[in-house]
């Protein structure tokens, strides 16, 4: 069984709607826990996940407190990797042992839970696999940092899976599932085989995610991203080459796109020289040449044209046509 789940729910029927979607997409293997009355009554959650054969991944953000109803949760033959980005996740094991995973930490746990809860505003991810896939975490949960290269790769791969799952054939499903297990072992402290070809798409996506957050950073480079992802620059470049684009070309295109957006921001206060500097072009002349090559206009002409057309309700055709030409020009 394979399926995607993507919901944003709140209100009177939020929990029943969520439970129905979960059952349909995730099935009995990953049955939803029983929650207490206050959780059901105030249920408000953003959830995006998927199931690939015997593996489940879910990103979640809860606006209100989550708390199970005290019944046993999960099964003995599952291992769970919890990754908390904000808030805190708490759970108990049979026998009265309690654990708390705060923001910025991960926790690997095997077997049944007696209960779990999450504070309001908690965001995180959970990956559930057959216990045989990860031997660590048996007997005593394993904790670690959530901000590691291995966790970034796991998150990036999960992003790709959620986008592509519906179009994957049997071979793609099997490869996706095995890559999730490999990355889970790495995130749990088992190390990463950075020459494994199945990891190339996840590595490229993780690099894009990091680059997108650092486009104004003058130190942004393939080498800097490779260090952050704990792989060699050659390995990272090879991952991008497999997708038909260099990492430097990706950074250049993203910086041009952000500069273009800055040019047409209403009531813009930055000059073209300031925009060029912010997005790390050598000078305004270099920026103008790169911009014209991509968008077939100088920055000044582009900003003036879009500004004039935005004054006419519904008239943004030229802006769209410029983008379409740029897209066609950059497509192999």
Q: In angstroms, what is the radius of gyration?
A: 23 Å
User: What is the N-to-C order of secondary-structure elements (H for helix, E for strand)?
Assistant: EHHEEEEEEEEEEHHHHHHHHHH
Count every helix, treating DSSP H or I runs of 4 or more residues as helices: 12
CATH topology of the largest domain: Jelly Rolls
Can you summarize the main beta sheet?
7 strands, antiparallel
The CATH class assignment of the largest domain is Mainly Beta
Q: Which range does the strand content fall in?
A: 15-25%
Unreliable residue runs: 311-332
> Between the first and last Cα atoms, what is the distance in angstroms?
36 Å
The average pLDDT value, as a whole number, equals: 84
In total, the number of domains comes to 3
CATH homology superfamily of the largest domain: Jelly Rolls
Query: What percentage of residues falls in helices of 4 or more residues?
Result: 40-55%
**Secondary-structure arrangement, i.e. CATH architecture of the largest domain:** Sandwich
Structural class: alpha+beta
Strand order of the largest sheet: 1-2-3-10-5-8-11
Question: How many beta-strand elements?
Answer: 11
What's the overall geometry?
Answer: globular
Pfam family, one: HTH_18
InterPro entries: Homeodomain-like_sf, HTH_AraC, HTH_AraC-typ_CS, PchR_regulatory_protein
Protein name: AraC family transcriptional regulator
GO molecular function: DNA-binding transcription factor activity; sequence-specific DNA binding
């Amino acid at each position: 069984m394979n399926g995607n789940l993507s919901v944003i729910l709140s209100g009177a029927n939020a929990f029943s709607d969520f439970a129905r979607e979960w059952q349909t997409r995730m099935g009995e293997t990953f049955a939803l826990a029983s929650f207490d009355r206050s959780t059901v009554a105030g249920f408000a959650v953003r959830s995006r996940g998927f199931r690939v054969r015997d593996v489940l991944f879910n990103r979640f953000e809860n606006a209100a407190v989550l708390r199970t109803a005290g019944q046993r949760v999960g099964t003995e033959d599952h291992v769970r990797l919890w990754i908390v980005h904000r808030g805190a996740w708490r759970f108990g094991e049979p026998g009265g042992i309690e654990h708390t995973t705060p923001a910025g930490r991960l926790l690997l746990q095997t077997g049944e839970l007696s209960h779990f809860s999450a504070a309001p505003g908690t965001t995180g991810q959970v990956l559930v696999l057959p216990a045989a896939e990860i031997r660590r975490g048996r007997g005593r949960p394993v904790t670690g940092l959530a901000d590691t290269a291995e966790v970034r790769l796991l998150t990036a791969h999960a992003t790709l899976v959620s986008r592509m799952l519906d179009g994957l054939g049997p071979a793609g499903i099997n490869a996706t599932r095995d890559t999730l297990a490999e990355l889970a072992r790495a995130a749990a402290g088992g190390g990463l085989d950075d020459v494994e070809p199945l990891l190339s798409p996840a590595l490229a996506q993780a690099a894009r995610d990091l680059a997108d957050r650092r486009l104004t950073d003058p130190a942004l480079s393939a080498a800097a991203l490779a260090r952050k992802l704990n792989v060699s620059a050659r390995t990272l470049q090879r991952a991008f080459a497999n997708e038909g684009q260099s990492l430097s070309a990706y950074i250049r295109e993203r910086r041009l796109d952000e500069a273009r957006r800055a040019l047409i921001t209403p009531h813009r206060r930055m000059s073209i020289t300031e925009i060029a500097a912010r997005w790390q072009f050598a000078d305004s002349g270099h920026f103008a040449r790169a911009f014209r090559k991509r968008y077939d206009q100088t920055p000044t002409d582009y900003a003036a044209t879009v500004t004039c057309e935005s004054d006419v309700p519904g008239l943004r055709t030229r802006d769209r046509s410029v983008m379409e030409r740029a897209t066609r020009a950059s497509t192999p």
